[in-house]
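Morning. Coffee machine broken again, so started the prediction first thing and wrote up yesterday's gels while waiting. Chain of 176 residues, entered below exactly as on the submission form.
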Amino acid sequence: MWKSVILAPVLAAVFASGASAQLSRQSGPIQIEADRLDFLDKEATAVYMGNVDAVQGDARIRAEKLTIFFEKNQGDDGGGGLGSGVGDVQRLVAEGEVFYMTPQEKAKGDRGVYNYQDDTITLTGNVTLTRGENVIVGDRLVVDISEGRSRMESDSRAKGERVRTVIITEGEGEEQ
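Came back before lunch.
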């Protein structure tokens, strides 16, 4: 408990001074809740564990574990205080049952990686993407946030599986 209370101002300062990570097309702070937080200054990482819920604007990531990797500040040996050795956000890695949700879409996978430099979120492992009643299933989903594009791939061709899609059209299911 005390560790979280002490680390909260440090992480707030890190996020304020670092590059703005974008989980959605809306900018602003990322608010993260979890059962536990470990901040590893020398490794330049923050590890959230247990019922992790990260929200930015209209986008949300839920997972069992979320690790934030920061750039290490050059020439800082960690002697400047807790949080002084980290810089901009490089990537976020979500593990466990991972959900990425926006008002229009819901995606689920085993692992998710947000890469700041590419502004992409990649979900892998048993990926399902739903939009309304429409469903796409595959092994890998790459969402380019800034471009507003996504791509689903299947790595399971050896098992004879490919990307599968169900599209519900207007009038479908209505009696004639």
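The mean pLDDT is 80. Going to sketch it on the whiteboard this afternoon.
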